[in-house]
Each structure stands twice: as structure tokens, then as C-alpha cells.
Amino acid sequence: MQLTYEEYLAQLESDHVQVTTTNTTTAKIQEDATITQALNFMADQLASGYLCRYEWQVTMPVGEALSVRLETNLINVPMAEAPRLDPKLLTRDSKYQVKIYMVAEGDDLNKSSLRIDELVADTEAVDTAEAVNHFKEWVADQLAMTVENRKEAE
């Protein structure tokens, strides 16, 4: 799916976004089946012409839950901050490939409480096995970082 900056913002404003939110544990979010389910949801929504977000509220061993999400966007900015997609970052009339980003947000993750990285650049040709492995490594790093930072804060 390709969209212009204006089309992307219009879809966000018109609620043309499908969202799934679930609670999970640090172990379950790293299971292939859990990740594959989210990737299948993302693929189905994109094939139907919808932007989408799949969010897990991950119960942490200590402290508040960590929000871990897969989100569609044109660049590595959380969907909630889409108005930051201004002409300095994107040309208004150009079409951009919609990508899937991995987003982690929560206290003690890092100084900004946010981490966002690209998972899939071409949403029309997703290698599910590769995406699952990449996400597993990424989420393990984010969980470990949060736990380590919380231990240091004690």
C-alpha cells in the first residue's frame, strides 16, 4: 500500500485504522504463534486498505506494563504522533510505501520512554518467518532494557 502524507493523515482522522489491543506476559509476547497472529492481522488489514495497530500491554516482573506495538506508518514516528509528519520530513504529493514499525513505550525503557524500529518495509511481500525472528530479537532487547533500567533505579 502506498499513500501520500495527506492520504495517511486523512485515514487516521477518519478512523480508517483497525486496532487490536491485548494483555500478555513477557514470555508469551516472544512466542512465534503470538507474533504470527499479529502479523496476520496486519496483513489482512493492509490488504483491505486499512492502516492498523496491534498492541500488547506486557505485564512486567516489576513496575508498570510496557506497551509493545506493531503500527503502520510512512516513517518511524508513532501513529499517535502523525501530525509530526510535516513537509520537512515528507513531500506532500509523493506516494510513500506504508511500512510496519515495532514500537515499545513505557517508563524506564530509555530516556525518551520510546523505541521505534522498522519491521517490514514492503508490506506486500512479508517474509513471516524473518519478521517473527526479527521481532523476537527486538522485543527481547526492549524487555531486557526495561528490566535492567528498573533494577538500576531501585
Q: Strand count, sense and closure of the main sheet? A: 5 strands, mixed
Overall domain count: 1
Mean pLDDT: 91
Low-pLDDT runs: none
Q: Helix segment count?
A: 3
Strand order, sheet with most strands: 2-3-4-6-7
Counted beta strands: 7
Helix content: 25-40%
The secondary structure category is alpha+beta
Question: Which shape, going by the Cα principal axes?
Answer: globular
Secondary-structure element series: EHEHEEEEEH
Rounded radius of gyration (Å): 16 Å
Compact overview of the structure:
Helices cover 33% and strands 30% of the residues.
Please give a structural write-up.
This protein has helices at residues 5-13, 32-47, 128-153; strands spanning 2-4, 17-25, 51-59, 66-73, 95-97, 99-105, 114-120. With 154 residues, it is an alpha+beta fold. It has one domain (2-153). The strands form two sheets. A five-stranded mixed β-sheet has the order 2-3-4-6-7, sandwiched between helices. Strand 6 (99-105) and strand 7 (114-120) form a beta hairpin. Helix 2 packs across helix 3 (128-153). The protein is globular and about 50 Å long.
Topology:
Layout: E1 2-4, H1 5-13, E2 17-25, H2 32-47, E3 51-59, E4 66-73, E5 95-97, E6 99-105, E7 114-120, H3 128-153
Parallel strand pairs: 2-3
Antiparallel strand pairs: 1-5, 3-4, 4-6, 6-7
Helix pairs in contact: 2-3
List keywords for this structure.
154 residues; alpha+beta; five-stranded mixed sheet; two-stranded antiparallel ribbon; 3 helices; 7 strands; 33% helix; globular
